[in-house]
Each structure stands twice: as structure tokens, then as C-alpha cells.
Design a protein that fits this description.
This protein has about 220 residues and is α+β, with helices and mostly antiparallel strands. It has 7 helices and 6 strands; from the N terminus they run H-E-H-H-H-E-E-E-E-E-H-H-H. The strands form 2 sheets. A 4-stranded mixed sheet has the order 2-5-1-6. It has a two-stranded antiparallel ribbon with strand order 3-4. Strand 3 and strand 4 form a beta hairpin. The radius of gyration is 23 Å and the shape is globular.
């Protein structure tokens, strides 16, 4: 009788274990699908600007910001009528040589002879906050400006929707920019990047970051 009882207990335990494993696998796949869908929608809705300094020296970092300011001033003028991400990317492609000339001129005016590399592509970005908007880590289409050896700290902003502003720490994202982003995302996706108070939203955002960090680790390996 004891043997039968032990057998049934062991069989029930195995069944429970199998169900637990299958349920965990289902939860993992569901979470991964959710993260991939949300991340893709968010990354597909923005076009970013990425400026990389020659080094982390004080002088090179200051030069990076001067190049950034000159580029932003020009970009704000030429992109004022852009109404979509595709418009901005097309504009960036068209004015790529102008971006190079402006960056190079700014560098030379400040007494340096660094090279400049301008590229448009899909690049990896960490989690970044712009005023009251936070974008999760992921791969985003972007205009990248590399100064010299490009081994210094980065500066990021978003060209579309226009979230770029000089002082990120005190900047406030314009309502028009938020509306453009909201129009390109579902309500839940927009809530994820704009709501910093809800515990439920924080959990989902953390979930996205967790899976993205795992993916980045695999890529880097």
C-alpha cells in the first residue's frame, strides 16, 4: 500500500513539474512576444540623432556639444515641415553632406582637425530619458555623427518626433512632439514611455529592458 501511495505521489509530482515547466515556458514566450512587438513599434516610430565625441577629455566633450548645437540649429530649420519619420530620414539622406560640412567647420573653428564620419542606419541604443519621455533600450534608425576616434561619451536625442533640446536635464518635451508619437503608438505603448508613476507601467518597462539586455548580451558574445 505504501508503495502504491509513493508511486501516486511521485506521479503527481512529475505531472505538477511538467505543468509548471510548460506554464513557465508559455509565460516566457508570451513575455518575449510582447517585448518584441512593443519594442518594434516604438523603434519604428522614431528617428534618432547620435553624436560621439573623440574622447572623454573635457575639451573633446565641450567640442561635441558645440558640434551638436550647430547641427541642431541647422536641422531645426530644414525639418520644420516634416510630418513623418520617412520625411526626416529622406531629408537626412539628402543633407548628409551639409551635416558633414557643418560638423567639420565647427571642429576647425574651435582649433581641431578631427575627422568626421556621418552615417545613417540602425544602431543599438541604451534606455534614455528625454524630459518626461523614456525610450527603452533597443535598435533604432538614427543619424550618427562620429568625431575623430569616436571613443568618447555619446549624446543622443530624437529627430522625429522632434524631442531634441539642448538641456536634457531641464527640458520639457513639446506637446506637439508627444502628440506625434502618440499617434504612431497604441495607447499602452505610449503609456509605457510617458507614465513614470504607475507601478504596472514600471513593471512592463522593466520587463522590456530585461529582455533587451539579454538580447544585447547574446549579440555582444
Amino acid at each position: 500500500m505504501k508503495k502504491i501511495f509513493k508511486f501516486f505521489n511521485f506521479t503527481c509530482f512529475k505531472r505538477f513539474l511538467i505543468v509548471l515547466i510548460l506554464f513557465s515556458f508559455f509565460v516566457f514566450i508570451s513575455a518575449l512576444s510582447y517585448v518584441n512587438a512593443v519594442s518594434s513599434d516604438i523603434s519604428d516610430s522614431v528617428f534618432r540623432l547620435h553624436v560621439i565625441a573623440n574622447s572623454d577629455s573635457k575639451e573633446d566633450q565641450e567640442l561635441k556639444y558645440k558640434v551638436r548645437d550647430a547641427l541642431l540649429e541647422y536641422m531645426n530649420k530644414i525639418s520644420i515641415d516634416c510630418s513623418s519619420k520617412e520625411d526626416v530620414i529622406s531629408l537626412a539622406e539628402k543633407h548628409k553632406d551639409d551635416f558633414y560640412k557643418i560638423a567639420k567647420q565647427t571642429i576647425e573653428e574651435n582649433g581641431y582637425d578631427y575627422s568626421v564620419n556621418i552615417s545613417i542606419g540602425n544602431f543599438e541604443f541604451p534606455t534614455k530619458t528625454y524630459g518626461d519621455i523614456s525610450l527603452p533600450a533597443g535598435f533604432y534608425d538614427a543619424l550618427k555623427i562620429e568625431i575623430g576616434e569616436a571613443s568618447g561619451q555619446n549624446w543622443w536625442c530624437v529627430m522625429f518626433p522632434p524631442l531634441c533640446f539642448v538641456d536634457v536635464s531641464s527640458g520639457v518635451v513639446p506637446d506637439e512632439s508627444k502628440q506625434i508619437m502618440q499617434n504612431n503608438l497604441t495607447d499602452e505603448e505610449y503609456e509605457l514611455i510617458s507614465d513614470t508613476e504607475s507601478s504596472d507601467v514600471k513593471f512592463k518597462f522593466s520587463l522590456i529592458e530585461l529582455f533587451k539586455n539579454i538580447n544585447f548580451a547574446k549579440v555582444s558574445d
